[in-house]
Each structure stands twice: as C-alpha cells, then as structure tokens.
Amino acid sequence: MEYHKLGDKPCSSHLFFAILLVFVFIASFADAAIHFHQFVIEAKPVKRLCRTHSTITVNGQFPGPTLEVRDGDTLVITAINRARYNATLHWHGLRQLRNPWADGPEYVTQCPIQPGRSYTYRFTIQNQEGTLWWHAHSRWLRATVYGALIIYPKMGRPYPFLMPKKEIPILLGEWWDRNPMDVLRQALFTGAAPNVSDAFTINGQPGDLYRCSSKETAVFPVEAGETILLRIINSALNQELFYGVANHKLTVVAVDASYTKPFTTNVIMIAPGQTTDVLITADQQPARYYMAAHAYNSANAPFDNTTTTAILEYKSAPCGAKKGQPLKPIFPQLPGFNDTATATAFTAQLRSPYKAEVPMKIDESLLFTVGLGLINCTNPNSPRCQGPNGTRFAASINNVSFVFPRRNSLMQAYYQGQPGIFTTDFPPVPPIQFDYTGNVSRGLWQPVKATKLFKLRYRSKVQIVFQGTSIVTVENHPMHLHGYEFYVIGSGFGNFNPGTDPAKFNLIDPPRRNTIGTPPGGWVAIRFEADNPGIWLLHCHIDTHLPWGLAMAFLVENGVGELQTVQPPPLDLPQC
Hints:
Elements lengths: L12 H18 L3 E15 L2 E8 L8 E4 L3 E8 L7 E4 L25 E7 L5 E7 L9 E7 L13 E10 L4 H11 L8 E4 L16 E4 L4 E8 L5 E6 L4 E6 L2 E8 L2 E3 L4 E7 L6 E9 L10 E8 L25 H9 L15 E13 L14 E7 L2 E3 L7 H7 L31 E3 L2 E4 L4 E8 L8 E5 L4 E8 L18 E2 L1 E4 L3 E8 L4 E7 L4 H4 L2 E6 L20
Parallel strand pairs: 1-4, 3-8, 9-12, 11-19, 20-25, 22-23, 24-32
Antiparallel strand pairs: 1-2, 4-6, 5-7, 7-8, 9-10, 12-17, 13-16, 13-18, 14-15, 14-17, 18-19, 20-21, 25-30, 26-29, 26-31, 27-28, 27-30, 31-32
C-alpha cells in the first residue's frame, strides 16, 4: 500500500488520525487473502521405473499442487474424492486454532470422505510462516497424495536472512513398484512388516540411478553466484533421510516453519513429516552437481538402500567431451545409512534465533515410552501370524497400542457427547517401570489395544519425555503432534534420568518444531502450552507404525468464552 504525503489542510488533527486509523485497519484486512481450491483425489496413470501404475493423485499431479499463501490468509479447499478408497487431507504443521474439524486425520477429527463424496476444509493461517506441507491422512494414501504448503511472511515483512534470488520446493518421497495400499493391506493381513519401497524420489522423480528414470530426473538451473532457498520436505512414508548437494554448503535457516539460528552443514538429516529450509549459494565451478538423498536407518530392520538424485545445473556449465552432451554431474558424499552420530550432531545444532517462550512451571509432566511390540498368536502357524516367531507386529505408547474407532471420529463423538468411543485414562507414565533401552523381558513385549486419550486443562503447561525402547529394535521414531508446535528442550541416549537430565535442558533458545525424532535407544523432551482446545493426535510419522498403534490423542478442554472454545463443526463434515 502506498502512502502519499498529505498537504496542510484546515482540518482537525483528530479527524486526520481517525482517517489514518481507518486506513490502517482496512490495510490489515486488505493484506489477507482468501484462496479457493478444488482438490480432486483420483487415480491417474503414472509411469515410474519402466512401469505404469494407476496412482492416486490430486488434480492429476504427482506430487500434488503447491499451495502458496501468506501469514493471515484463509484457505477454502474442497476435496472431491473420486478414488476407490476413503480419503482425508491433513495440513501438516498448521495450528488450526479452535478448528480441529479442518485437521484431517481419519477417525480422529473427522470421518473419512467416502468415494464419490466431498468435504470443504476451511482454515486461516495465524502467526505462522515458512515451509509446511499437506498430505492424505488415511491409510497409506499419502505415499502419493502430498504437496508443499508455503507460507510467506505478511506483506512488507522480510525474511530474517538474505533474500534469495529464487526458491525451490524439494519434496523427498518414496515409490513402490506396486499399489501402496495393497502393500499395506498385505502387511495388515499377515502381521508382518510391509515390503520396503523400491525407490526414493525428489519432486516425484527417482533420478539417474534407477531404471527408466534418467530422462525425467529433476533439473534445477541456477546462475553462478546466486543464492537459492531450498524448502526441503520429507514426504517419504517410512524413512528418515540424509540429504546433501555435491561441493555445496547448506545454511539451515528454518525447520518446521520456525526460523533457526543459521548454521552451515554439508548434510542434513530429515525425518518423515519434517521440513528444513536451507540457503545454498552457487559459488562453485560452473558445472552440474547432484543433490541426493538416501536412507538413515536406525533400526535393525530391512530398508530401501537406494539413492535418489536431482541436478543443480549452472547455466554457464560447459558441455561434456561428447559434443552437445552435458557434463556428468558430480556426486555428493553422504553419511552411511547407520550414521547416528552425524544425525545426532545435525539436530544438536538447531536453535531458536531468539529467547524462546518455554513454559517454565509445568502442570503435566509426562513420560511416554515409544516403541514396537509383538502380539502373540494362539496359532503361530496361521497365515495371519507371519511376524517374528509366529507373532504379529504392534507398536505402542506407554504399552497402549492405539485403536482408531470406526463408528465415529473421536472429535465428533466428544462434541456430540457420544459414549463408548474412547476413554480418557491414558497413562501419564509407563504402567511398569523397566530398563527401557536394555534387555527387556519378553513378558513386556505385548501391548494392550485400546482407544485411550489424555485430558489436558486449557492453558496447562505440558512436558513430555519420549523414551525409546529396545523392544524388537531401537529406532528413531519421529513423533508428530497435531494442532501444536513445541520446544525441543533436551535429548540423550539410554534411559531418561529425572534426577540429572533436566539440569541439561535448554530453556533459553531451544528449537520449535511440530515433529521430533526420538533418538534410537534414547529420549527427547518437549514442552508446550495446551492453548488449542480439541482432540489432537500424537503419533509416529513412520506410517508403518501408525496402524500398528504407535499413537495416542490429547483431549484439550475448552477454556472460558468463545475465543477459548472449539468452534462448531461445519455442516458438510463427513459422517461415518
């Protein structure tokens, strides 16, 4: 908005200031826009790795559309389900203040959108900016139903770092050479682990190292000397990833749509659900450089041991030896797949750029064990008991393996006062204390299946220590809390010691996130204020673990008055 110098006028200063206030008020609303979108969820032919599959897409795109908005904008997105599966959409990392109805996890805040039906998600972005993303939150649909959600600052507000010449979303994904929903269905029938993916992808393309893929490898042209902002999103279904660009330094400036103190690194580790913004300057010899990603695998389990690539191409790069042929790209050095030291060192560098508003007086101090388990079978030789030693895989938090309801969603049941859908007796600490990361007795490997929630008073100050276990295997579990951001105040290996470890907490400038990994064989501590009423899912973002039960939900009670109360559900909210 332009401001012009007003000449001297024979009017009162009171009138002048009144008019000025009106202009400022109008301008504040004029900056906010309403974005209308239609997302058609349907199967389309997609060819990867030499084969064409009928792939679930949004608007025929894989990955799906990129949403670009500003802080303060409102989105109105009508999801039309033309696929043969139930579907929902989740706007990963958005607070959705007082509006759980737009959050999206099936059977938690809504019943799924059935084939042939639609639902309109309406929400406003409030005091958030940076890189987030959206994805399906119904079974394994998010293997291909996902896209970037980029929130720019309000008009006139600059980035807290050098303005880049261009910005590039980098979506890291996984690809199965068959229908991902069939992969999940087979695993849930047999009780065994699902087959691992056949490729990783960058912006939907596997890259040069896979069959039938080189022609479609993503290429990003750059001018020598320019600085680019890479908005990196791990949209892979099940795999933490190492990512780097050959011969180029990455300056980390934000994670999960929260700015960080900038630091420089050769490689990042990014877990499913997380985002990382990095600045990269094209300051090397003009050439072609691979950006690449491969697995960080912290579990004693099979994994996809392939590498996806894209190309950072200097526009002034010379041609190769063969006339007209481009130079062969230079490959980056990535850590080994089991390099926990590098992963830990990376996350340890993350800091908020300012003194953080960390809750100091804690009302609810929770200890949550997170890990896998096994369900014993009465007939171990059954086709349905193909897990280790004739069992079925499971997962749990505090020995409760979460069961998603089917008759109604949790939020609808709560709002309608419908009994029998859930209980609010989720344990605040493990029911039995044991050496969580040691040699655990097999008698503690089988969790209890239930739909239990933990109730929080409005504005209560919460601390959660996520304690990994060695049951079946240690593993980095990326824990995602819907409806909230939180401060990551500490982490370590082994068992959390409540007597000595809190003294090492960072309560000054911890990073703010919405998804945080639990170190393999270790713990991580977070804090937040329960200022968003509703029912909010907490779960591991490795999607193999979600149907096994590595989840729970918080029921945050209403406060006082309309602004502290869940808003009424929309009229078109799907019914079960």
